[in-house]
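Structure (tokenized):
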């Protein structure tokens, strides 16, 4: 399993902590799309980098972190094939996989600390999509994208 991860200047430390945590806990390869500096950058650039890697299959899933998670998620969801939700607690993270089949997770480094972020990531990485009626609804979302 390969996980893409990207962030803006607000989330460099949390990104590094989460990347290390995923590698140590799950043994997954984590591909870092930056930024790695606290110098101010524009979050859509990094949200798009992770999203394109997920959409192309370069990585299996993506995690995007900025101050709130909002900007990264908004940018990522502009890329065809991406379903990215902002999750600030584990329940939403669980449902974003079980019901929405999200292939990207976003959260905010100014919203959650490392301990809560670990719980969100653990829940998200270990929850399977339930399919069934949820597949029909996800298909309807993706149909909106196809119709433009
Ligand atoms: C950067 O100040 C901030 O706007 C960004 O990290 C993010 O929260 C945007 O949604």
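Design, position by position:
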């Amino acid at each position: 399993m390969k996980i893409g991860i990207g962030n803006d200047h607000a989330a460099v430390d949390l990104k590094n902590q989460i990347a290390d945590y995923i590698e140590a806990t799950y043994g997954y390869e984590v591909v870092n799309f930056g930024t790695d500096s606290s110098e101010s950058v524009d979050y859509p650039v990094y949200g798009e980098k992770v999203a394109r890697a997920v959409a192309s299959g370069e990585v299996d899933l993506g995690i995007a972190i900025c101050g709130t998670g909002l900007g990264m998620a908004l940018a990522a969801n502009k890329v065809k094939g991406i379903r990215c939700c902002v999750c600030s607690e584990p329940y939403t993270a669980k449902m974003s996989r079980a019901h929405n089949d999200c292939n990207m997770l976003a959260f905010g480094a100014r919203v959650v600390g490392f301990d809560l972020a670990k719980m969100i990531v653990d829940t998200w990485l270990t929850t399977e999509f339930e399919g069934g009626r949820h597949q029909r609804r996800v298909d309807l979302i993706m149909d909106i994208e196809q119709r433009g």
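Reviewer-requested clarification: Residues 8, 10, 43, 66-68, 70-71 surround D-ribose (CB under 6 Å). The chain has one domain: 2-147.
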